[in-house]
Amino acid sequence: MAPSHAFRCCKRALNWTPVLFINLVIGWSYYAYVVELCVYTIPNDAERISYLVVFHLFFAMFIWSYWKTILSKPANPSVAFALPSADKELYEREQRAEVQQEILKRVARSLPVYTRTAGGAIRYCDFCQVIKPDRCHHCSTCEMCVLKMDHHCPWVNNCVGFSNYKFFVLFLTYAALYCVVICATVMQYFIKFWTKELHDTHAKFHILFLFFVAALFFISVMSLLGYHLWLVGKNRTTIEAFRAPVFPNGPDKNGFSLGFRRNVAEVFGDRAKDWIFPVFSSQGDGHSFVTRLVHIDPEQANSVLQQNGKIPSDGENSLGVEGDTEDSRKEKTDGDQTVVVMMDGKP
Ligand SMILES: [Zn+2]
Ligand SMILES: [Zn+2]
C-alpha cells in the first residue's frame, strides 16, 4: 500500500472520532436514563412508563435527524456546469488568465450563475473543473464542490449543505429537546440524591452525571441552534455570513433573502407537516436560487428558464472530483448589460 494512500485511509478513519464520541455519549445517556433512572430509581409505574414514552419519542427523532445528516451525500454540481470538452482543452492550453476568463464567461452565459469572485471573475473550481453554481463552494475535507455549502461539520463527519441543511437544523433542535427532556425529568432525582433523601446506590453516579452532561450539551447546542435559526431566517449560509456573496453589482449579504416566510420555506419546504421530520423538503435544485435583487444579462435570463427545467435535482450526474482550493480569484470585471428584478420581500 502506497504511503500516501495509507495516510489518507488513516485520516478518513480519524475523521470518524468525533462521531464515535457523540455516539458513545448518546449510548451512555440512553443506558443511564432507561436502566439506572427508570428501572432502578423511579418507584412508580405510571411515572416510569410516561417518562419512557416521552424519552423514546425525542430520542428517536434526535437519532433519526442526526444519522440523516451524517449519511446524506453532499450534492455536487451537475455535468451542465463542466466545460464542454473543446472549451476545456482551450482553457487548459491557455496561459493568459484574462483569455481563460473569457472562455468561462462564454460558457457561463448559458448557465444560471450570478455570483462572482471578489475580483468580479466567474467562479471556477480547478480541482473539480466546474463553473461553481451560486452558493457552491469547494470543501477541502470532502475534496469536492458542494451545492449551497454551509460548513464542513466534524461532529457529523460530513459537509452540511443543500442536501442535508434541513436535517442539520432538525438535529440541533432535537438534540436540544432531548437534553431538555432529560434535565426536566431527572432534576427531582438529582436533588434527592444530592440532598441524600435517596440512599447512595450505583444509580447515583449515573443520574448526577446525566443531569450535568445534558445541561452542558443543552447550553452548547442552543448557541449553535440559535445562530442557525437566525441564518435560516436571513437565507444565509455560514460561509455567506462571514463573506457576503458578490453579485455583478457588488457584494450583498442579503442577496438571497426573500423575506422571512419564504426564507424558511426554502430550507423546510411549503408544507408544515414536513417541517418536523428529517425528510428532504427543501425547495429548488441547489444549482440556482431566486435572488432579491438580480442584475441579469437579458440573454442569460432566458437561459435560466431553460436550465431550470434541465438540471437534475438529485445531483445524479455529478462530476468526479479531487483536490483542494478556495474560490478562484482572477481579476476581471463583468461588463454585462443588466436589468433589475425586485422581489416583494424584505431581507
Ligand atoms: Zn471543487
Ligand atoms: Zn466537507
UniProtKB/TrEMBL annotation:
Residues 123-242 form the Palmitoyltransferase DHHC domain. Keywords: Acyltransferase, Membrane, Transferase, Transmembrane, Transmembrane helix. The DHHC domain is required for palmitoyltransferase activity. Its EC number is 2.3.1.225. Signal peptide: none annotated. Residues 326-335 have a biased composition (Basic and acidic residues). It catalyses: L-cysteinyl-[protein] + hexadecanoyl-CoA = S-hexadecanoyl-L-cysteinyl-[protein] + CoA. Belongs to the DHHC palmitoyltransferase family. It is found in: Membrane. It comes from Oryzias javanicus. PANTHER family: PALMITOYLTRANSFERASE ZDHHC16. Residues 306-338 are annotated as: Disordered. GO terms for cellular component: membrane. The chain crosses the membrane at residues 20-43, 49-67, 167-191, 203-227. It is a multi-pass membrane protein. This is Palmitoyltransferase. GO terms for molecular function: protein-cysteine S-palmitoyltransferase activity. InterPro entries: Palmitoyltrfase_DHHC, PFA4/ZDH16/20/ERF2-like. Pfam families: DHHC. It comes from the Eukaryota. It is an enzyme of class 2 (transferase).
